[in-house]
Specification:
- With about 190 residues, the protein is mainly alpha-helical.
- The chain has two domains: about 110 residues, Orthogonal Bundle (Rna Polymerase Sigma Factor, Chain: A), CATH 1.10.1740; about 80 residues, Arc Repressor Mutant, subunit A (Orthogonal Bundle), CATH 1.10.10.
- It contains eight helices and no strands.
- Helix 1 packs across helix 2 and helix 2 packs across helix 4.
- The radius of gyration is 17 Å and the shape is globular.
- About 10% of the residues have low confidence.
Length: about 190
């Protein structure tokens, strides 16, 4: 069977039926985005790799929890976000400090800078990206998840609402509040 020709929903349903080859295609297709989500939360390459691997394994083990009433990708990214948040909570409780503070470029599925960007623009974009990542922990958990799913993953408001089990109006409120908080935090960048 040509798994690469199937939609995500069909792959997830095949995995639910016990067809493990469907999981290999899910990993091939989405591992970059899963890593990118994990990295945005952890800001550390090794931690992001651990979270991404754990997320993919959890999807494999818990595929029965996914319902075909919603899209598969938002569910996968939500699993990843939840694991990353749990990871950060555990790390915070242990008072463990990051060893790797270096910038790691985004991978597949992440926002891409225009190729025509000059050096000054690239430096400015990097500074903004770093500042946004530093400001994200100041948002509530729900605001942070909504912001990241919308602006980093490019999900539609309806998909975010379905994944979070809330209304589109609620998503809009969280998105508005997150943007307002980030504008205050990053006001000096204007």
């Amino acid at each position: 069977m040509d798994w690469s020709a199937l939609e995500d929903t069909e792959l997830a349903l095949a995995l639910k039926r016990g067809e493990d080859a469907a999981f290999a295609e899910i990993v091939r297709r989405h591992q970059g985005r899963v890593y990118a989500v994990a990295f945005r939360y952890t800001a550390n390459r090794e931690d992001a790799l651990d979270v991404a691997q754990e997320a993919l394994l959890k999807v494999y083990r818990k595929i029965d929890a996914w319902q075909p009433t919603g899209n598969f990708l938002p569910w996968l990214l939500r699993v990843t976000s939840n694991l990353a948040i749990d990871f950060l909570r555990r790390r915070k409780r242990r008072r463990h400090e990051r060893l790797d503070e270096s910038y790691v470029p985004m991978t597949e599925g992440a926002a891409v800078e225009p190729a025509s960007m000059n050096t000054e623009q690239a430096v400015r974009a990097h500074e903004i990206d770093v500042r946004i990542r530093e400001a994200l922990p100041r948002l509530s958990e729900r605001q942070r998840v909504v912001f990241m799913l919308r602006h980093y993953e490019g999900l539609q408001l309806a998909d975010i609402a379905a994944e979070l089990g809330c209304t589109v109006g609620s998503v809009k409120v969280h998105l508005f509040r997150s943007l307002r908080k980030l504008q205050k935090e990053l006001g000096d960048l204007r």
